[in-house]
Amino acid sequence: MDLQICVGCGDRFTTPVVAPDAAVLVCAQCGHRQPFRRLPLFALTGPSGAGKSTVGRLLTPALGDLAVVVEQDVLWTAGLQDPADDFRLFRSTWLRMAAMIHQSGRPVVLVGTVVPAQLERLPERAFVGDIHYLALVSEPEALRARLRARPAWRGWDERRIDETLAFNDWLRREGPTLRPPVELIDTTTLPQEETVRAVTSWVRQGCADTERRSLSVMRP
After folding, report:
1. pLDDT, tens digit (0-9, with 9 covering 90-100), for 173-218
2. Could you tell me which InterPro entries the record lists for this protein (predicted)?
3. How far apart are CA 83 and CA 161, in angstroms?
4. Quick one: pLDDT at residue 215?
5. Which of 71, 122, 162, 178 is the residue whose CA sits 20 to 30 A from 42?
6. Which of 132, 148, 112 is nearest to 42 (CA)?
7. Are the beta carbons of 180 and 132 closer than 8 angstroms?
8. What's the CA gap between 23 and 102, in Å, rounded?
9. For the whole model, what pTM was predicted?
């Protein structure tokens, strides 16, 4: 279900209006009120080489009973690679996609590089509940070695590696102070299975916290 289309009159809107007291979309054209599921979104982020894609492949069996794990780059197609406004179209499309998946009753774990400022300011942010951010990071020289070891066809020259290391350093320094904060896991020496367990626990804890808040609101 595309939440940007009113099921009452068929109008398509770019700025969603959500009722202040409930997960209900209100059509500005006809006033139709459409309840929807507003579930949490889990953004597994970090620099290239820190382990996101490897861990992401292992999260599906670990979280198959709870969440849908998706790789951000699957939508990195020509039509969405417009750099305008920090690739706004790409990121807003992902919020819409996550919201549609949420209507099936399962939260989304989005695997790919993103920081809070790139999602939190978008109108489509209203479609999802809390967004939790967790970054896989690494010690600089370990990350440099991983990126240098990648196949030549992936295009990892020294300039690109230096840019990635700068982002890694920024995340390690600033991530916990951002709003919302970005939690960190250092994968420099952490075994892969332990990283998967830590990410799985992070998702399960976030879902449990959301469930507890929902139950407390429902109680008279």
Report:
1. 999 999 999 999 999 999 999 999 999 999 999 999 998 887 766 5
2. P-loop_NTPase (IPR027417)
3. 20
4. 72
5. 162
6. 132
7. yes
8. 12
9. 0.95
